[in-house]
Write a structure and sequence with these properties.
2 copies of one chain form a homodimer. In chain A, strands 3, 4, 5, 6, 7, 8 and 9 form a 7-stranded mixed beta sheet that branches. In chain A, strands 1-2 form a two-stranded antiparallel ribbon. The first copy, chain A, has a single domain, classed as Nucleoside Triphosphate Pyrophosphohydrolase. Chain A is 18% helix and 39% strand. In chain A, 37% of the residues are buried. Chain A is built from 2 helices and 9 strands. Chain A is of the alpha+beta class. At the A-B interface, strand 2 and strand 7 of A face strand 2 and strand 7 of B.
Amino acid sequence: MKEELICPHCGRPVSRYRNPFLTVDIVIELENKGLVLIQRAKEPYGWALPGGFVDYGESLEEAVQREAREETSLDVELTGQLGAYSAPDRDPRHHTVTVVFVARARGEPRAADDAREVGVFAEGNLPSPLAFDHGRILADYFAWKKRM
Amino acid sequence: MKEELICPHCGRPVSRYRNPFLTVDIVIELENKGLVLIQRAKEPYGWALPGGFVDYGESLEEAVQREAREETSLDVELTGQLGAYSAPDRDPRHHTVTVVFVARARGEPRAADDAREVGVFAEGNLPSPLAFDHGRILADYFAWKKRM
C-alpha cells in the first residue's frame, strides 16, 4: 500500500510504501510489588503498559530498554516475549503493531516523558480504563504466568 | 529518526518519521513431510522461510495467510507465534523486523511470486545457504518443538 505525503516546498504529492508503525510494550514485573503501568499524558488517555515506537536501526530489545527508562525511569531486565498484537483498529490513531516483552526491575518507578503518572498494580486491582488492547494483553500475560 | 525522501516534482527533500520495515515469516509444517522453504528469486539469494512485508491495515495473521498463498500456493492454518527478530543487520538491504509464525498445511506447494523454487525439508537436511537469520530462526523452532 502506498502513502501520499505532501511536499512542503511545492505542495505536490510524494508517494511512499506504507507499513504499519512498529512499537514495543513492556510488562514490567517490579520485585515483590506488582506490574508497572503508566497513565498516558496524551490521547488516547487511560492507563497503559509502558512502551513506544521502535526507531530505525534499533532492535526491539533496545527499544524496550529505552522506553522503560524514558517513561518509568527503571532499568529493566528482559525475561521473554509475550507476543505480537496487530489488529488494525487496536490504536485509534493509526495502524500500529506491537511486540510485547516481559521484564523485571527493582527500585522506585518515576513517571517521565509520555507518562503523566506511574502506578504499581496486581491482577486483582488493575486500573481503568486501560488504553488500546492492553486489557487483553494483560489477560494473556496472567494466563501465560499461570501456565509457567 | 527521520528519513528524507526526494520530491519527484521539485527535487527537494521531504522528511518523514522512520520506523523499521515490518515483515512476517512462516514456518510451514507440511503434513507428514517436513518444512516448506523457498529459494529466493531476488537478492539476497538463498533458501528462506516464506514471508514478506506487512501492509498497512493488515493484521500479521492476514499477512501470513497472504504471503503463504503468494509464495507457496498453500492455504495455511496458524498454530502459534515463534517470536520477533529485529537485529538491525539481519537483512543486508534495510532494517526489517520480522514476526515468525508457525502454521500447518497439506497439499502440494508450488513456487510463485518472489519464490523461484519451493522445497520440503527436515531438520537433518536443511538446504544451504539460508538467507537472513533464517538459520537461527529454524534452530529456535526445532528447540521449541523439542520443549513442547
